[in-house]
Amino acid sequence: MSVSIAKTKRIHVAVGVIMNSDNQILLAKRLNHLHQGGKWEFPGGKVEQGESVTQALTRELKEEVDLTITDTSSLMTISHDYPDKQVLLDIHWVTGFTGEAHGIEGQLVKWVSKLDLQDYDFPDANKPIIDKILELES
């Protein structure tokens, strides 16, 4: 008897760590029906075929929180396996943007101090991002 194992595709996600002029980071709360729903995250979304990470991040931040990126740089990349999903997070540091952040898809959004990030419940894949942000602070 042979057992076939389905190969799951790793989902490529563009993530923005968005910092405002008050040195606060923008968080969005995942809607309950989504994977890791009810947890806080850094905004972003799937990189579509034919898109660069920057193009995907620009599109997703406009669609999700109504911000237009004007300055961004690569921060880090994380590959994480959840029991039911595999993700590749391409994280960018966004220090220039225009617009007023709000949850276009009905999600809560909130600006928080870097030191308060540890007080929020994030998906496991986001923990190294928080560590990196705090490391940059010291």
From TrEMBL:
Keywords of this protein's UniProt record, alphabetized? DNA damage, DNA repair, DNA replication, Hydrolase, Magnesium, Metal-binding, Mutator protein
Tell me, what is one Gene Ontology molecular-function annotation carried by this entry? 8-oxo-7,8-dihydroguanosine triphosphate pyrophosphatase activity
- According to the record, the signal peptide region is none
Query: Its domain of life?
Result: Bacteria
Task: Please tell me where Mg(2+) binds in this chain.
Answer: 44, 64
Give any single GO term for biological process.
DNA replication
Q: Does the keyword Manganese apply?
A: no
For this protein, the record's Pfam families field holds: NUDIX_4
Q: Which reaction does it catalyse?
A: 8-oxo-dGTP + H2O = 8-oxo-dGMP + diphosphate + H(+); 8-oxo-GTP + H2O = 8-oxo-GMP + diphosphate + H(+)
**Which NCBIfam families does its entry note?**
mutt
Annotated 8-oxo-dGTP binding lies at: 30, 35, 41-44, 126
Q: Which PROSITE patterns match?
A: NUDIX (PS51462), NUDIX_BOX (PS00893)
Report the enzyme's class at the first EC level: hydrolase
InterPro entries xrefs: Mutator_MutT (IPR003561), MutT-like (IPR047127), MutY_C (IPR029119), Nudix_hydrolase (IPR020476), NUDIX_hydrolase-like_dom_sf (IPR015797), NUDIX_hydrolase_CS (IPR020084), NUDIX_hydrolase_dom (IPR000086)
Does the UniProt entry include the keyword DNA damage?
A: yes
Its needed co-factors are: Mg(2+)
GN (gene name): mutT
The record's family statement is: Belongs to the Nudix hydrolase family.
Q: Which organism is it from?
A: Shewanella violacea (strain JCM 10179 / CIP 106290 / LMG 19151 / DSS12)
Q: Which residues form the Nudix hydrolase domain?
A: 9-136
Q: What is this protein called?
A: 8-oxo-dGTP diphosphatase
